[in-house]
């Protein structure tokens, strides 16, 4: 029979981000719903055709989404928060949950495991019912449109619940609050109720004649307890009850399976998927515990997360090792993690990227080709292709950079000045009031800005014309901020496309694709830089625009940089040297920029680290090592500044509560954080941990078009005042404003400044040292 193949998670965005254009055009009223749905259907047909061409034995369906696959499940099982119930139209309600409305705050959004994908967090009450069998509809659609049998894929009940929050009554109060489902006493009850709905889904699929289903359960790689494993097994006994005609695969990825022996042996399913790419632990466990003879192994041996070409010689060795423990006819080759973490195709980059680099790369289309190739190598003896991957990598070495990293690796890195003393001096030098206001950095990237940038890149306008245009945008933003009475200003980042791409384009060792877009959330896509060589800074990167902005105002203007850990985590980084060393290379390059800004008279420098938490290993036993070098990399960017130079950082949309002590060790003078969508939940971390550095509370949700009221923002601010020293509180949005429109931004910032004024009237305008 030979080895079979499958793939999953192929990008949903379309070859040229057609999904973004279709849905955003619909939101703007530029096209009808019917037109939007027709365009998105065309995208889905195109992506399934790619998988048909890859000669897969199991072709997935139900892996396409208009916004988010977790939100798809929430609306499928009627997990709709009460505030959206009055919206009768199901599609309007779907988008409202993701984006909010004028009178309903959007559902919380946070990172999907340790990736840069964001999902919409389910808010559960426990009342589950199947209102729309999406897997069945998708299966029928593929059969009707393309005449093929597919394997519906759906996030498993256990993972869905682990990622959810539930409403619970507050102690001593009739009010409800949101808590993580995994920490709730209701977890098992909810899981078993959810299992009944999943069983109904399977029974309807079985009745339709579906042959195979895949449940994605990446939560099974987390540090789950024995008790949770028992809950899992009980839930799956309910899910699979009465199901005899469908092959049920449970796929795990991003890390090694926890409780390997128990889950592989006792989970009542046909096959289990394991990630053999992220590390060697699943292979080690396979050798130690074996694999049950009554199950199929879905072997994730082709990377779904990094863009580096598969080494077929190493891959064949890995498959041969796996075959020692699992019969060949019980192995299904697969990608190790969803392919939506990769751009669509390398083909678009030919003639754009260095040909040596092209030879090292594989995106989603190329991954499908690799799966097809390895099937032919293993099953019909196709000759191994000629590859010289390591020789190609050696061409990008810089010994000077590597030596600089060695020089700092063994040293303790920290600012020599005590925080309290330096913070007081900073505030006095800046001359700002209590509860100072600022924004996170970017202002709206209007259609006009994007058009001018495109004209410049096409050579239709000169560099001087483009610079003059950017200066006009900066001048407008500075004047606006002064009129709004903000205290610390920003230049607006109009010259920047993406907060990582901008810096990578100015550093050695980075490459940038022309069309290498990856979905971040909803219709938002990013083009991750590719770190292929050693990193250095050939020239200043932000000095010109920042100094120009500062010369327009007497108020302080922040220098705006993206931190080393975020640049690393939001890039496709190389795998031939340790991740830690790449972070130090970036940090040393950024330190040169920080010192140049300081020398030019910039008194506040923000070094953003929104992806600091994102890179945290999923296994707790591996986290301390990461946190140590991540903190050190951040400190390395600014440990040589004067005590009067104020260092800010920004973090958003991640669960920071469990690493608050490490955030404290970063020793930033001010950290700004998200607190709006989570309704100030992050503040609980500061109730437990005495944080005595500056805190910028994000009281304005910028990912929604709605304009928050003063009262709404005030609620979060007042909660903060009860926990944080009033001298240390800053007021700001929760993230940059580049994706918003000016007509939303201006009134929202007015309301935000009003909150600061109310706080000053109530608690005093002067600092009380």
TrEMBL record:
Entry's EC annotation: 2.1.1.14
MF terms (GO), sorted A to Z: 5-methyltetrahydropteroyltriglutamate-homocysteine S-methyltransferase activity; zinc ion binding
Pathway listed: Amino-acid biosynthesis; L-methionine biosynthesis via de novo pathway; L-methionine from L-homocysteine (MetE route): step 1/1
UniProt: 5-methyltetrahydropteroyltri-L-glutamate binding residues: 17-20, 111, 116, 524-525, 570, 614
Binding site for Zn(2+): 650, 652, 674, 735
Entry keyword set: Amino-acid biosynthesis, Metal-binding, Methionine biosynthesis, Methyltransferase, Repeat, Transferase, Zinc
Keyword Nucleotide-binding: no
A biological process term (GO) from this entry: methylation
Cofactor(s) needed by this chain: Zn(2+)
Reaction equations catalysed: 5-methyltetrahydropteroyltri-L-glutamate + L-homocysteine = tetrahydropteroyltri-L-glutamate + L-methionine
Domain of life assignment: Bacteria
Alphabetized InterPro entries for the sequence: Cbl-indep_Met_Synth_N, Cobalamin-indep_Met_synthase, Met_Synth_C/arc, UROD/MetE-like_sf
Domain Cobalamin-independent methionine synthase MetE C-terminal/archaeal: 435-757
Binding site for L-methionine: 440-442, 493, 608
Active site per database record: 703 (proton donor)
Residue span, Cobalamin-independent methionine synthase MetE N-terminal domain: 5-325
Cofactor: how bound: Binds 1 zinc ion per subunit.
Binding annotation for L-homocysteine: 440-442, 493, 608
Binding of Zn(2+) 1, residues: 650, 652, 674, 735
Family: Belongs to the vitamin-B12 independent methionine synthase family.
Physiological role: Catalyzes the transfer of a methyl group from 5-methyltetrahydrofolate to homocysteine resulting in methionine formation.
UniProt name for this protein: 5-methyltetrahydropteroyltriglutamate--homocysteine methyltransferase
Organism name: Persephonella hydrogeniphila
Taxonomic classification: Bacteria, Pseudomonadati, Aquificota, Aquificia, Aquificales
